[in-house]
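Researcher: I'm preparing a figure for a lab meeting and need a structural model of a single chain. I don't have an experimental structure, so a prediction will have to do for now. The sequence is pasted below. Please return the structure as tokens so I can convert it later.
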Amino acid sequence: MLPSKKNSDTWIGRCGYAQLKSGEVELGYLLLKEYWGQGYATECAMALLEWGTDNLPVDRVTGFAPSHHFASLRILEKCGMQYVKTDYYQNIESIFYHYYFKNRGNGQVQEEI
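Model: Understood. Here is the structure written out token by token.
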């Protein structure tokens, strides 16, 4: 998804879901620096979770950020994600969160028959 500036066609970053090597689904966002701190990332994350509620075949999604990116960590918390662990991702200390969808399977992408 390409988020745009309100009342404009100007793209300000990207956001979406990706499947990690573990099989988990990651929620992610990346905005141009001049749009940080204006609520766009929170709006993107909440929209993705709302969309995922009806469209993703998993019981949870993962979100994470480097441990020193306090604003990104706060966004994940504001969206209702729950702390899972502090670990390393690509040699960077990161904090991991899960968002649990109700009435779902085991957290892995379910294969279609």
